[in-house]
């Protein structure tokens, strides 16, 4: 079983891989929870990872859930004169949909997933900061098909206007079918089946009229016997 990766292990994997591809340059990785999508300083580049998968743990009710819709934002800057670069990183959080608390919870990821995510980051970094081409992005990190609807009201990235998920064709077809059946009018039921109105042929009414008839016959017989 793979262990969950901490911030320090994120940095360790990044530094090791950058040492292999750019040993002459010094790079730093900084976690920045205030990083904003498409808000860049002069010379900074951006890479948005939308193929990540992570497990969330609610610190309030202890509910855990797996999400294949994890979003990670990277801002990158290279100072060619100093041969030094910096990467700022933000992992967007999610709200717990079980207890409804307004506290955003962080995710944990497996080391096997981090390897692919860092490879994607470095591919984008080499393209945008060094002008290199020919890299390949790994999209199998969270390639498992997920036909559940993403609950954007609990996603920090969605709430900040980052569009990173769209429903699959299968999900759209299922929802359209569900909507059609839910909106279909119910067929009219005969009055005797609904139980509304006066049904004089029902068993209670038959017993009532039989009792009335017997009472009339009894009264007539008693009246004649008295004479």
TrEMBL record:
InterPro entries: R-trans_p, ZAR1/RTP1-5-like_Znf-3CxxC. The keyword Membrane applies. The keyword Iron-sulfur does not apply. It is a single-pass membrane protein. Residues 51-161 form the 3CxxC-type domain. It is found in: Membrane. Keywords: Membrane, Metal-binding, Transmembrane, Transmembrane helix, Zinc, Zinc-finger. Pfam families: Zn_ribbon_3CxxC (PF13695). This is Nuclear import and biogenesis of RNA pol II involved protein. It comes from Saguinus oedipus. The chain crosses the membrane at residues 202-221.
């Amino acid at each position: 079983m793979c262990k969950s990766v901490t911030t320090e292990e994120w940095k360790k994997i990044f530094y090791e891989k950058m040492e292999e591809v750019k040993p002459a340059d010094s790079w730093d990785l900084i976690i920045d929870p205030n990083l904003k999508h498409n808000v860049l300083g002069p010379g900074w580049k951006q890479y948005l990872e939308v193929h990540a998968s992570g497990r969330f743990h609610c610190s309030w009710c202890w509910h855990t859930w797996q999400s294949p819709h994890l979003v990670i934002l990277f801002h990158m800057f290279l100072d060619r004169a100093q041969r030094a670069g910096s990467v700022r990183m933000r992992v967007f959080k999610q709200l717990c949909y079980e207890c409804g608390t307004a506290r955003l919870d962080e995710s944990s990821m497996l080391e096997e997933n981090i390897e692919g995510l860092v490879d994607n980051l470095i591919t984008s970094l080499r393209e945008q900061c060094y002008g290199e081409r020919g890299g390949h992005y790994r999209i199998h990190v969270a390639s498992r098909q997920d036909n559940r609807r993403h609950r954007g009201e609990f996603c920090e990235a969605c709430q900040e206007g980052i569009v990173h998920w769209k429903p699959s064709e299968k999900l759209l077809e299922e929802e359209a079918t569900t909507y059609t059946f839910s909106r279909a009018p119910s067929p009219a039921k005969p009055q005797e089946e609904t139980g509304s109105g006066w049904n004089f042929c029902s068993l209670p009414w038959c017993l009532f009229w039989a009792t009335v008839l017997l009472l009339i016959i009894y009264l007539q017989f008693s009246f004649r016997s008295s004479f």
